[in-house]
């Protein structure tokens, strides 16, 4: 496995898109080493968000800070989009196991671009769905809300699920959590085995996003 930054990964889904560069710089200056970028196509999930051109626009400032761009593809048939995001500067590309019959192929595409692959499972997807993929990815992301929107409450059943996922994954891949992560939920996720903590609204909707970043980092054990 390549070296992967652990800790809190701010999700720009909840940032002010009119000031996107400034908002990314704010969390990079606070110490974020992973910036999470949610891509939604209006099919796999109802909303439509951003694409490779926006990734390309923010990637240079992320890389200049020594951080990585973590692209979460909530799109049908992600294998059609891997090339564009790799060329746009994505460092890690996460594909949903539910989004394609060819998830192993998509992971191979990501690796062939020299990027880091990850696989994502939705709340309704059992951890066994990644059993044949753990050895070909760097990260397994466990959705702790249903995908598609920021600001949803953390699904408490995720803690027991993370325990089952950690038992399956062991030290073969990092475990990332995404959805409803805040200073209250990050600690239990860390105890259950998570090492990467995506947080959107808890950071960018906070009165003081930098303080929120530090609080969640401390709660996760990366303060
Ligand atoms: O992938 C997603 C949503 O589908 C996330 O990355 C959200 O951005 C998380 O937002 P919060 O739950 O932290 O507000
Ligand atoms: Co996400």
From TrEMBL:
Pfam families: Ribul_P_3_epim. One of its GO terms (biological process) is pentose catabolic process. It catalyses: D-ribulose 5-phosphate = D-xylulose 5-phosphate. Substrate binds at residues 11, 72, 148-151, 178-180, 200-201. Binds 1 divalent metal cation per subunit. GO terms for molecular function: D-ribulose-phosphate 3-epimerase activity; metal ion binding. GO terms for cellular component: cytoplasm. Belongs to the ribulose-phosphate 3-epimerase family. Catalyzes the reversible epimerization of D-ribulose 5-phosphate to D-xylulose 5-phosphate. This is Ribulose-phosphate 3-epimerase. The gene is rpe.
